[in-house]
Amino acid sequence: MASGRKVLRSTSLGVGRILSFLAVSLLCGVLTAGLMSPAVALAGSATNGSVQFFDSLPSDLEVTPPAQVTRILAADGSVIGSVFSENRTNVPLEKVSQSMRDAIVAIEDYRFYEHGGIDPMGILRAFASDVGGAHQGASTLTQQYVTNVLNEDLVAQGQGSDVVLNGQKGVGDKLREMKLAISLEKKESKDKILQGYLNIVSFSGNAYGVQAASQYFFSEDAKDLTLTQSALLAGLVNGPGYYDPVAYPDRAVGRRNLVLDAMLEHGYITKAQHDDAVKAPLKLKLNPPKQGCAYAAQAPYFCDYVLHQILNDPAYGATPADRERRVDRGGLTIRTTLDPRLQGPAQTQVDATAGANPDKWGASLVTVQPGSGKVLAMAQNSRVLAGQGTGFLTSYNFNVDRTDPSGNQLGGVGGMQPGSTMKPATLAAWLDEGKPTDQIVNAAQRRYPPGYPWKTTCGRVSGSFDSAVAGSVDLQNDEPGWYRPMTVREGIYQSINTATFASAAALDDFCDIQRAADAMGLHDGAGGGKKLDLSVLGNILGASNVAPLTMADAFATFAADGTYCAPMSITEVDDAKGQKIGGQAPSCQAGALKPDAAKAATNVLEDVIKKGSGLLIPQKLGVPDAAKTGTNQYNNQTWVVGYTRGLATASFFGDPFNGSDARLGRNVTVNGKYYPVIDGAYIAGPQWATYMQKVLGFYDHGAFDAPPQNLIRPASH
């Protein structure tokens, strides 16, 4: 009988309570006519109050789909994770074994294919049983289905407290159930009703519907259930908790054998089949459902990021509660951009980067496809729950913003200081103004005092570097030998702070740095639509937090010859009926950066790997690649952001929660190796290169487009 956490348990008629009503009704023939001939009752031929009450009851059952599992899928269709309030997956009747269909009919309603929704003989049989001191239910499968549908609808509307449990039903409740059952039988076939029943009924608190029950108890699909398995499941609906085969195996076997007896009695199986099945041991192969992204089979933090986007989007419900209900109960299929061919190596690499990691250093990788914005991989070395691996525990996603543009939570840590990986924004502004990469700037200049005459059209530039001013210092490079004139190109590939400032000072408009950063999608890791304020001098050197996904996507703009595409992770959302109800499409802006400027930037960033700060990365990709290293001033947040034509990846290593001097990345041992200081090329660099070596072949890795010579050499050359 229908049962479960939010579903009515056994649905016996409550014969004692209804007989008093029956006695009165018999005087006018109302209920008798309804039971024996539903058409007579529904015609309302009598005129007394009982008839009027019966006629006033609803006769149409609106069958809304019961709660089902929402699945998040990778691009290849493999499962990432699932979310549900009731573990249920609907299946058509033809995908339920015949033995399961026979077992449920035999034990619950053996006259199912003979009655019209209510069974007068069953009621009389139950009455006789009650008179004899026993107790027997009389609800048909159709009535049980009706009850489950009504209760599921209440739960779906957030009115679970209004569900009337077994034993609490009044006469009116039972009559409504009967009338709806009669009406339903007129509209639907017996097989359709049986299908609905098998999909809605509870077999366990972990399994609603026959497919989920088959998977939970036997790791089998419903179509493959054997006779003994079917009999066990059919027995559970009478009392899922009482007959739970995990907790009470003896009770479960006894109930199973009772079902087998009924199947034999009603001609569904032979005596030999019965006797063999009764002797069979209880063989469970439990497959407990794993609820939520914390148990995702792959990419738990990406899964969480995707769910946050759905729950934040009014397209899936007017209120947060509506959206949560739709995800938990709606049986959605959320198809994503994640590529398991990349995700597996990314996860393996971040786990290997820091090893056992008792000091809780964070490592992350996130990859975006240039020209589409598709997020292909997202991994970090932490874990959401204990027992999932050696990583330290956190629910925060290292790779994404704290909130979306509207201020809704995305689950991100809020970004980290990108250090010198921010310098290409100044390079992009330089090139967008048509200036060549090999032009010499004065990287010997270290003082930019308050009131320095920056060329700006958008307001005051704030901040200063001048040791002659109280509380300030001269601009510093990482090493002492680089305070000299040099080309803009050399300033980038050797990551010279004074060269970046000299480039900024030589721009026609300092505000072009902000414009370039905006065009590349760079923004504050706090989210909420907050821009990076690049009128603050420290920020052009990467002092403000940015999320790795944002950095990977910004560099993808270079790889795509200046076309910026917003990150996208959801390709399609389908409802339980397979109808498309949402999804994202590429949102790209061609010419966000001038194509030639983007090509010239890539030409410079290739030199980072060939002869600059990236030369320290021992692994080489062996294909055209470009990158930029980055390290914050405390050496505790370090980066390499790099790309091929087809993949742009941000690699991070450090403390994702704290970019201050409270924890320095100096004199530390990571994965058994001692580092006097941590630099972007030392750990984040090999992590990036090792991972990219393994996956670059899946996407375009040909030569980059050559830039025009006017953006390489000054006109005088």
Automatic annotation (TrEMBL):
Pfam families for the chain: Transgly, Transpeptidase
Source taxon at top rank: Bacteria
One GO CC annotation: outer membrane-bounded periplasmic space
Keywords from the UniProt entry: Carboxypeptidase, Cell shape, Cell wall biogenesis/degradation, Glycosyltransferase, Hydrolase, Multifunctional enzyme, Peptidoglycan synthesis, Protease, Transferase
Family, per entry: In the N-terminal section; belongs to the glycosyltransferase 51 family.
Catalytic activity: Preferential cleavage: (Ac)2-L-Lys-D-Ala-|-D-Ala. Also transpeptidation of peptidyl-alanyl moieties that are N-acyl substituents of D-alanine; [GlcNAc-(1->4)-Mur2Ac(oyl-L-Ala-gamma-D-Glu-L-Lys-D-Ala-D-Ala)](n)-di-trans,octa-cis-undecaprenyl diphosphate + beta-D-GlcNAc-(1->4)-Mur2Ac(oyl-L-Ala-gamma-D-Glu-L-Lys-D-Ala-D-Ala)-di-trans,octa-cis-undecaprenyl diphosphate = [GlcNAc-(1->4)-Mur2Ac(oyl-L-Ala-gamma-D-Glu-L-Lys-D-Ala-D-Ala)](n+1)-di-trans,octa-cis-undecaprenyl diphosphate + di-trans,octa-cis-undecaprenyl diphosphate + H(+)
Occurrences of domain Glycosyl transferase family (ranges): 77-263
Gene Ontology biological process terms in this record: cell wall organization; peptidoglycan biosynthetic process; proteolysis; regulation of cell shape
Protein name: Uncharacterized protein
UniProt key word Transferase: yes
InterPro entries in the cross-refs: Beta-lactam/transpept-like, Glyco_trans_51, Glycosyltr_51/Transpeptidase, Lysozyme-like_dom_sf, PBP_transglycosylase, PCN-bd_Tpept
Domain Penicillin-binding protein transpeptidase, residue spans: 364-644
Originating species: Sinomonas atrocyanea
UniProt keyword Protease present: yes
GO terms for MF: penicillin binding; peptidoglycan glycosyltransferase activity; serine-type D-Ala-D-Ala carboxypeptidase activity
